[in-house]
Amino acid sequence: MKNIDKNVVMLGWVSFFTDMASAMINPILPIFVVVVLHQGMDKLGIIVAIATFVSYALRLVSGYISDRYGIVKPLVVGGYALSALSKPLIGFTHGYKSVSALKALERLGKGLRSAPKDLMISSYSKAHASGKTFGFHKTMDIAGELSGTVILFSALLYFGESETVMRTIFYATLVPGLIGVLLVAFLVKDIAHQPPESHIAFQLTVKDKRSIASLFFYFGFIFFFLNEAFFTMQAKEVGVSIALIPLLFVVSSGVQTVVSYPTGLLIDRYGVRKVLIFAYSSGVASLALLMMQEALYSWIAYGFLGLFTVASLNANRAFISQTADNRGSVYGVFYAGIALFGALGAYVSGVIWELLGMPTALLVSLSGAVLLLFAFLFLGEQ
User: Do the domain assignments include residue 14?
Assistant: First the structure.
């Protein structure tokens, strides 16, 4: 991890504390909605769809603003602040609509900061080391998730699984969230960025458009791939207790923490395409394991979920850094694509699960993922 800029290191710590807060609630939020608030899987699908769309769609706007007007750090600070303040409020909710609104607000903060943050990381990367730099940052990111899930597991084990305990955990996310805000506000330097002259029309270059076109295999995979909220409900359906569900996220986060940095090194050495093939294959394996409908295989599926998540994100983020001219805008398009396809996929999965049952939802997801994997093998050019 030598020669990583100190600003990237500090952004890693910002992500560590912010994702700690997120991980304290994400494993239990689906259970809170379906079991505590007595909402259906279709309502959970709506919450996931809205949160996914808001989280990623705004990244298109924030990425454009970063490139067009040179505004970077203020978007990052504002995004972290919005997320930190909205998470604790979920503890006061009593219906899926209020959960949707607050989750959307929390994801709005993530959407506001993500593309500008990636632009900062890319700008502070050393030559020919974008994979390593993004791999390091993702390691810190996932280490925060791992810490948060351990805190959640300990709280449920010691205090129980009651509604009161769950709501108190939501309130407690305020502490790590605010630590992250203070770190980025006072200890991260803004990048030196000169926006184009105001009279010159801003437009994507040919290289930008080629980069965007190459991302559509990933967008399709995201549409079919189940959101982690559905992984959680599948685990509960096959007999994993609520108290143990955070440990499933520990498995996923632990795998990501261990392999993120090495994955970045592999990207720099062997290229994006080979790492993406590995990522998509891991995603297919995780869905196939869920189809087995046994608790043991669900535990293993979370490990492959971690491999898919970290390898695909690191590879695509490094790919944009290596190939695009207006990187902030292309990062924005990347996240906007995830928004559209991820939101549609979550809604469709929730409806299929509610109307036709879990096995059918899993079968549709697995079938689509397999088709996309083979399409990428024969047609992908990354």
Answer: yes
